[in-house]
């Protein structure tokens, strides 16, 4: 299944503005303005200027929160997004409610305390983001993330992403039962996405610091239905349901 | 969501021939002919006469196996179906390959040895069958069973059924993660079924004999999305997306 572009010209538009350049622009914009996000529970908030707002929208980070202030926009980032902007792109400082800037280690510790699976989820998120995929939450489709080839305004999401880890005793994860696998694949087929399972494998070392991220390995696996009729030798020309005849 | 009948007249047809009567007819037919099913791995096979075949089709038990014998029909039953016919309806004897008739206790032991979750699955299956629901495998939709109000030729399946038990350490079951729940509900919505979760709760006693089935309790739970717009006071008349105004 290839990308499903939204309307004519979208493909060309995406090619003319690669996501890598859009991310670079965002990075410069946030660094120049010395942006500071405020950590709050399981999200990070940023009051954005018009320029920042445009850059965030184009790179598809965060979501706008509706406030009563008409001329200012507040953005809310999920923890993976915020940590990616802060730790990976180094373009966003994150402060607590007392305006103290948090170090990488402090942030890491905070996020791991909020979400037990943060190391694996962030590894998966950044694994796709560094390859210039746009990564958004997947709860609408019952998966962890959805991945877009470019901005969601131009293209439909291509992959439904599930994060699976090998943590000891982590039996509460997805796809361990056939019924779950069937359910997930059937849904992915129905919404024209490919199921991408990211196995995030740790090396058994401690996870006290974000440098431990380098020790994770990510194994990618796409899962799809095998349809006999579509996988025959003569498929390209015939699409028949009869047995193929020998000539 | 109510039943979705297939075409005009189906509802009347179903009302004229209640499933309870169809099951009674099947029962008589199988008892009269002293039917014997042959156990084979995870299924039970029955060579059916034309009359039996009609009765099985109408009651929706088993599936026809294609064989080279044109004038004879072989039926294959899943273990729940076979045990229901044998133990609950008492209309099918089941024999092994040496033609020895198996007792209820022997059958129970055999089936539990083949499928670890057989007690819970059979309890769920029979819970619906005794209420005259037609119960078929649900793997196509990533669930354990689907339930029809009447024969699948007359009506679409109404419930997608998941069996959940409280067995110690049974962490490999469905719906423990939000993503799984979202996935399942989204799929059920897409195929116009209601998710029915049957919690089969044991009383902690041994399961060496089928009489232990009486000690299980079944708690039914349907799960569906809550859509604010459809749950407002004024819903029945307005279906508006605006805030309701006070009059």
Account of the 3D structure:
The structure is a homodimer of 247-residue chains. Chain A has a 5-stranded mixed β-sheet. Chain A has a 5-stranded mixed β-sheet with strand order 6-7-8-9-10. With 247 residues, chain A is α+β, with helices and mostly antiparallel strands. Helix content of chain A is 31%, strand content 21%. Chain A is built from 7 helices and 10 strands. Chain A binds chain B through residues 138-144, 162, 171-174, 176-187, 190, and chain B through 138-144, 162, 171-174, 176-187, 190.
Layout of strands and helices, then pairs:
Two copies of one chain form a homodimer.
Chain A: H1 10-16, H2 19-32, E1 36-40, E2 43-48, H3 50-59, E3 63-65, E4 73-78, H4 79-88, E5 93-95, H5 104-114, H6 118-129, E6 134-137, E7 145-148, E8 159-165, H7 178-190, E9 194-201, E10 217-223
Parallel strand pairs in A: 1-5, 8-9
Antiparallel strand pairs in A: 1-2, 2-4, 3-4, 6-7, 7-8, 9-10
Helix pairs in contact in A: 2-3, 4-5, 4-6
Largest interface: A-B, 25 and 25 residues
Strand arrangement across the biggest beta sheet of chain A: 3-4-2-1-5
**Tally of helical segments of chain A:** 7
Largest sheet of chain A, in brief, is: 5 strands, mixed
In what range is the share of β-strand residues of chain A?
15-25%
Note poorly predicted spans of chain A.
237-247
Organism (chains A, B): Saponaria officinalis
Domain tRNA intron endonuclease N-terminal (chains A, B): 36-106
GO biological process, one term (chains A, B): tRNA-type intron splice site recognition and cleavage
Catalytic activity (chains A, B): pretRNA = a 3'-half-tRNA molecule with a 5'-OH end + a 5'-half-tRNA molecule with a 2',3'-cyclic phosphate end + an intron with a 2',3'-cyclic phosphate and a 5'-hydroxyl terminus
């Amino acid at each position: 299944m290839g990308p499903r572009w939204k309307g004519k010209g979208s493909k060309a538009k995406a090619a003319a503005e690669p996501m890598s350049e859009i991310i670079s622009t965002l990075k410069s914009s946030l660094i120049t303005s010395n942006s500071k996000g405020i950590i709050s529970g399981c999200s990070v908030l940023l009051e954005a200027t018009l320029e920042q707002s445009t850059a965030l929208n184009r790179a598809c980070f965060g979501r706008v929160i509706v406030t009563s202030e008409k001329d200012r926009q507040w953005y809310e980032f999920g923890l993976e997004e915020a940590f990616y902007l802060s730790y990976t792109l180094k373009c966003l400082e994150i402060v607590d409610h007392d305006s103290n800037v948090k170090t990488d280690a402090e942030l890491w510790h905070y996020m791991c305390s909020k979400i037990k699976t943060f190391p694996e989820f962030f590894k998966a998120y950044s694994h796709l983001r560094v390859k210039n995929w746009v990564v958004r939450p997947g709860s609408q489709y019952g998966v962890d993330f959805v991945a877009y080839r470019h901005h969601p305004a131009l293209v439909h999401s291509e992959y439904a992403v599930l994060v699976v880890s090998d943590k000891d005793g982590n039996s509460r994860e997805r796809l361990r039962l056939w019924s779950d696998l069937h359910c997930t694949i059937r849904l992915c087929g129905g919404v024209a996405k490919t199921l991408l399972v990211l196995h995030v494998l740790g090396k058994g070392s401690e996870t006290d610091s974000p440098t431990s991220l380098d020790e994770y390995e990510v194994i990618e696996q796409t899962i799809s239905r095998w349809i006999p009729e579509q996988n025959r030798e003569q498929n390209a020309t015939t699409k028949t349901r009869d047995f193929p005849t020998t000539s």
